[in-house]
Each structure stands twice: as C-alpha cells, then as structure tokens.
C-alpha cells in the first residue's frame, strides 16, 4: 500500500508523492522559547518526529527542519517579568527545549534555525514583497496587502469577504484593509531591534517561518506540519508571503495535529490545568508519554488526564511484560533469526501494522496490531508445551516489536533500564533514609518520600520493627 497523507490544503487523503524520488523535505513549526514548552506543544514535536523516522524506515531520505522562534512579543514580556534580556530568556528556554526533547526521545532535527540568525534574509523577503507592490510600509511597520493574493484563505477555507475585523484582527487605521498582517514591526523603546530600509524594527512571527523554511528546504517543499491552531492565521499567512514572493506553490502537503485538552477542558494557566512537559516527565517515564500520544490518531483531539496516562502506562506494561516473558521462554532456544519466518498470523499483523501507518499515519490502528501480537505471544506461552514452531513465532513477535520500536520509541533501551537487583538496592536505601527522618521526627520529608514512591507504584508498609516496600 502506498503512503497516503491527509492534506489540509485539499481536505482529503492523498497519495504521497515527494518532489524528488525517495527524498522528503519537511518543516515543523517549532517552539517560541519564552518558557518551558507545555504538554500540548509536545504532541506535534513528538508525533511528527516519529512520522519523520517512519519515513526514514520506509527508505526515504528526509531533510527535517524545526525552527526556534527566539524573538517575539511573548519573549519580550517574559524578559520584562524575569528582569533580564530577551537574549538570556531565549538562550535559557532554548537549552531547556533541547533537554526536554531529549528526555522525550525526540531526535534532533537536521537543522534547528533560530529567527535572530536570519534577520537579513527576512529583510530581503520583505523588500521583495514591497518592490512587487504586495506589501507596503506604514510608519516604520510593513504590512502584507492580502487583497493582492485573490486566493488568500485557501488553506483554512476562509474567504476575504467573510473575514471581518474584530476579535481575531486588530484594527489599525494605517492598514489598507483590516486583514492585512504585519511583516516587519517598527521598534518600540526598550525592545530589541535591527536596522532595515524602513527603520529599526523586528520581524513578524509569520515571516520568520517562511524565510527559514524556504532557506533550508527551497521555495517549494514536500511537507509542512504543526498544530491545528496554526492553520489560521499563521500558516495561511506563510503561504501568502511565500507564494507572493516566489510566484510558486509553497508546500505540497500540510499536516496538522489535533488539540490537546486536560480533563475535557482547554489547557490554560487561568484554569489551573496547565502542565509543562518538564513537569509531566517528573511523574511519568517518557515511554509512557509517547504511548499516550501513539494510542490516538494524530489528527484527533486528545484528552490528557491521570486516567488516560494510567491506561497508557498499563498498555506499555503489557508489552514490556510480554517481551520479558518471551526472553524467558527463549532462554534455551537459539535459532538462526535470519531463517525465522514466523506464522502467517504474525506476518499478517506485521503487514497490517505498516498498512495502518501508511494510511495517514494511523498510529492508533497500528498500535492495536502490536497488542494483537502481544496477545498471540501470551496464548503461545500459556500452553502446557511449547513446540519449536511456537518458539520461532515468539522470536518473530519479539523481533518485530523491537524493529518497529526503532521509530516508535516506546521500549526502554537496555542501557537505561534498572535491573531488579539495582532497583532493590535503591529502594532499600530510600526506605533507610526515610526511617532516619522518622526517627528525627521530620514527618514532612518522610511523607514526601512515601508519596513519591506511591506515584511510582511502590507502596510502603510501616511495621513495628521495620518498614517494607512492595510493588502494586
């Protein structure tokens, strides 16, 4: 089955045909580095990285670019709140971004361009649009004239005549049309700025992505991805300014992931349900977070809750337990893995897994096939006697899951695993420390250790003479 992708541009699932055979150029809108990225931001970063790795698994040579917006209104506000410079804020949270991505198992892009490193390129694009009469200066700002692009709104499905100034569009008397958007912002006192033909200023957010994507991928490239909230106005404006400048189609396939809610509500600091990826990673293993996202189709909305995470944790435990049991069953069995074909059922499940991913990257259906493999393995291992053909099937299941894990990233690597013996040593030490704290009547810290262990599935029982721990 050929790879098919839902293209937001056409509102349909299409056969994927890259511009060049076996080569894919892909751009994902990256973070604005004014704070730690939240769990909603983690979804596109993680899912499109897995998609990129799946493309590579399928034999494509992928050039993958994820930008870093390091100058923006939010960064300026954050710098004012932290009483520091925008450069220091951007540097701090850029480093945190890469740290958290590494913890989540997100591989580095081929290029991670920063907006402030491409100011000259941005000025050149704005000059080109002004020279073509598509953009116009106004008191140090430069605006894009949307009426010069009759097809403005073709990505989002919005029509110029239907769009009115109001909640989404700031009223500015200097604009020819309320819908015109800013390409270059005039400098304000105390804000970072760069020299330009229109005076000191800084680039608009939409401009940054157009320039950086085209610089590293060309005027036309294969895939542009991001959250569904970016379709309008961000991606719409990217199309306008890029195609206005080049006269050619900007992107062939637009991929957008669905919203993430928390306990059924939109995530917001004011609602008290705002969680950074860093906070979540303090409570759960990265493999659990990856499983949580994989169990839903990337275009579907997803609800983040303790219950859903717990379900993902249990699902992952089923896979890990089965793999561990397979190892035990295969302990005395050492066949030539290259000659193992496995059963027809397992081969069919393998093909169905790949077909699900080829069908608009349907990870939910694909993971269902993994769990069917797990079920088959457990049926085999529950038999009173296991024949050689069954052992071969078990090996086939194990190798298949580990093969797919190269891009799924849900099975903890051997070097990161803590052995049962090591785990017992660490837990015994923690229990001993807690006992010392109790003797010193430091109940608060002792309770903290107990509660944190409970979160990790370890229960403590304080007996008369000692404290014992057990997993639950």
Give a brief rundown of this model:
The chain is an alpha/beta fold. 46% of the residues lie in helices and 15% in strands.
Set out the fold topology.
Layout: E1 4-7, E2 12-15, E3 23-28, H1 39-57, E4 61-66, H2 73-82, H3 86-103, H4 119-131, E5 135-138, E6 141-144, E7 181-186, E8 201-203, H5 205-217, E9 221-227, H6 231-246, E10 251-257, E11 260-262, E12 265-266, H7 277-283, H8 286-294, E13 302-304, H9 306-329, H10 344-358, H11 363-381, H12 388-408, H13 420-439, H14 443-455, E14 458-462, E15 467-471
Parallel strand pairs: 3-4, 3-9, 9-10, 11-13
Antiparallel strand pairs: 1-2, 5-6, 6-7, 7-8, 11-12, 14-15
Helix pairs in contact: 2-3, 4-5, 5-6, 8-9, 9-11, 10-11, 11-12, 13-14
Total count of domains: 3
Counting H and I runs of at least 4 residues, what is the number of helices? 14
Terminal-residue CA separation: 43 Å
Indicate the CATH topology of the largest domain.
Rossmann fold
CATH class wording of the largest domain: Alpha Beta
| Rg (C-alpha, Å) | 26 Å
Would you list the SSEs in sequence order as H and E? EEEHEHHHEEEEHEHEEEHHEHHHHHHEE
Q: Can you name the CATH architecture of the largest domain?
A: 3-Layer(aba) Sandwich
Strand content: 5-15%
Strands ordered across the widest β-sheet: 4-3-9-10
**The CATH homologous superfamily of the largest domain:** HUPs
Number of strands: 15
Please tell me what the overall shape is: globular
Please tell me the overall pLDDT: 91
Structural class by helix and strand composition: alpha/beta
The parts where pLDDT drops under 50 for at least 5 residues are none
- Largest sheet descriptor: 4 strands, parallel
Helix content: 40-55%
């Amino acid at each position: 089955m050929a790879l098919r992708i839902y293209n937001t541009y056409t509102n349909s699932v299409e056969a994927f045909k890259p511009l060049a055979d076996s080569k894919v150029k892909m751009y994902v809108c990256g973070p604005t580095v004014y704070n730690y990225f939240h769990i909603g931001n983690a979804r596109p970063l993680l899912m499109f990285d897995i998609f990129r790795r799946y493309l590579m698994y399928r034999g494509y040579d992928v050039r993958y670019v994820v930008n870093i917006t390091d100058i923006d209104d939010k960064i300026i506000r954050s710098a004012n709140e932290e009483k520091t410079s925008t450069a220091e804020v951007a540097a701090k949270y850029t480093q945190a971004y890469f740290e958290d991505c590494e913890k989540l198992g997100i591989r580095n892009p081929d290029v991670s361009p920063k907006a402030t490193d491409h100011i000259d390129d941005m000025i050149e694009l704005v000059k080109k649009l002004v020279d073509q009469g598509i953009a116009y200066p106004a008191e140090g700002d430069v605006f894009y004239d949307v009426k010069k692009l009759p097809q403005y709104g073709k990505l989002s499905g919005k029509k110029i005549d239907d769009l009115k100034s109001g909640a989404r569009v700031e009223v500015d008397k200097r604009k020819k049309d309320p819908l015109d958007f800013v390409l270059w912002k005039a400098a304000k006192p105390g804000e970072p700025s760069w020299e330009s033909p229109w005076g000191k200023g800084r680039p608009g957010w939409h401009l940054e992505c157009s320039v950086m994507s085209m610089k590293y991928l060309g005027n036309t490239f294969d895939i542009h991805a991001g959250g569904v909230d970016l379709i309008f106005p961000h991606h719409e404006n990217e199309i306008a300014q890029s195609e206005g400048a080049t006269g050619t189609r900007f992107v062939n396939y637009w991929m957008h992931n669905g919203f993430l809610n928390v306990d059924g509500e939109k995530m917001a600091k004011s609602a008290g349900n705002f969680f950074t990826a860093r906070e979540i990673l303090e409570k759960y293993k990265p493999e659990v977070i990856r499983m949580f996202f994989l169990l839903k189709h990337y275009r579907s909305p997803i609800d983040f809750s303790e219950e859903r995470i717990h379900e993902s944790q249990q699902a992952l435990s089923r896979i890990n337990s089965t793999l561990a049991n397979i190892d035990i069953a295969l302990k005395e069995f050492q066949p030539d893995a290259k000659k193992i074909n496995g059963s027809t059922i397992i081969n069919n499940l393998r093909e169905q897994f790949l077909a699900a991913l080829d069908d608009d990257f349907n990870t939910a259906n694909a993971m269902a096939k993994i769990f069917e493999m797990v079920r088959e393995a457990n049926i085999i291992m529950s038999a009173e006697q296991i024949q050689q053909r069954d052992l071969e099937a078990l090996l086939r299941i194990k190798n298949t899951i580990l093969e797919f894990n190269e891009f799924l990233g849900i099975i903890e690597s051997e070097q990161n695993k803590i052995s049962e013996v090591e785990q017992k040593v660490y837990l015994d030490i923690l229990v001993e420390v807690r006992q010392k704290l109790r003797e010193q009547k430091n109940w608060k810290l002792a309770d903290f250790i107990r509660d944190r262990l409970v979160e990790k599935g370890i229960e403590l029982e304080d007996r008369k003479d000692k404290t014992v721990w057990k997993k639950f």
